[in-house]
UniProtKB/TrEMBL annotation:
GO molecular-function term, one example from the UniProt record: DNA-binding transcription factor activity
Organism encoding this protein: Micromonospora musae
InterPro entries, per database record: Homeodomain-like_sf, HTH-type_TetR-like_transc_reg, HTH_TetR, Tet_transcr_reg_TetR-rel_C_sf
Cross-referenced Pfam families: TetR_N
Keyword annotations: DNA-binding, Transcription, Transcription regulation
Protein name, per record: TetR/AcrR family transcriptional regulator
Family annotation (Gene3D superfamilies): Tetracycline Repressor, domain 2
Length: 224
């Protein structure tokens, strides 16, 4: 006897686990093509997420090392995706940069807000320098996020403004203790932050050690 193709299915013949129902409520088996089709959306979502992360990682590395003038095609090449895939996810370089660095800016904001809550403002001020310098030494993208202009990146700009407000308030409180020199301005902190980015080393651990030393020297210079 020839069995109609539509009746073929994989799995045990009994039970509801391998059965679907028609619109009229009648039971019918899964077909092989249906199970494959069901897996496709998940696979496509997984591939898309993987591509997105590869693009963002490549963008962070390229922007941090070479600045914002790197062509989008070069970022696509380093991410191992086609230009069409890159532009479909991120139509402009500004959109890509904003997405790539918002996470780094959030980390800076968290540090500033946590140290602002320190009951000893001078200690909080010193810890901000130490923690930001170490974060920067471990992730070069932090400097780009903090110092580059992203006019259309609303979320990134908002995070940066919140960070700067917390740093400004912490500076004011530290000055009131008499331990932070009276002529210190917030731009001085940005200046040493950018100088710390100029430290180069063959390994992350060496760069972190150098940043810690530089942080100690900066704190000593800022103390009244």
């Amino acid at each position: 006897m020839v069995v109609p193709l539509r009746e073929l299915y994989l799995g045990p013949p009994e039970g509801d686990a391998c059965v679907r129902r028609n619109v009229n409520g009648r039971r019918r088996p899964f077909s092989y093509s249906e199970t494959v089709a069901d897996d496709l959306p998940h696979k496509l979502r997984s591939d898309a997420l993987d591509n997105r992360e590869r693009i963002l990682e490549a963008a962070r590395a390229v922007f941090a090392a070479e600045g914002m003038d790197v062509p989008m095609r070069e970022i696509a090449r380093r991410a191992g995706v086609g230009p069409a895939t890159l532009y479909r996810r991120f139509p402009t370089k500004q959109a890509l940069a904003a997405e790539a660095f918002t996470e780094q800016m959030q980390a800076c904001r968290t540090i500033a807000e946590e140290e602002l809550a320190d009951p000893d403002p001078w200690h909080g001020f010193c810890r901000v320098i130490e923690r930001l310098f170490e974060l920067q030494a471990r992730n070069r993208g932090v400097t780009t996020a903090f110092t580059s202009a992203f006019p259309h990146a609303i979320d990134l700009t908002a995070e940066r403004e919140r960070t700067l407000r917390s740093l400004a308030e912490l500076t004011r409180r530290a000055k009131e203790t008499g331990q932070l020199r009276s002529d210190f301005v917030l731009d001085d902190l940005i200046l040493v932050f950018m100088a710390n980015n100029g430290l180069h080393a063959t390994s992350t651990s060496t760069r972190v050690a150098a940043s810690r030393r530089f942080a100690a020297l900066a704190i000593r210079a800022f103390r009244s």
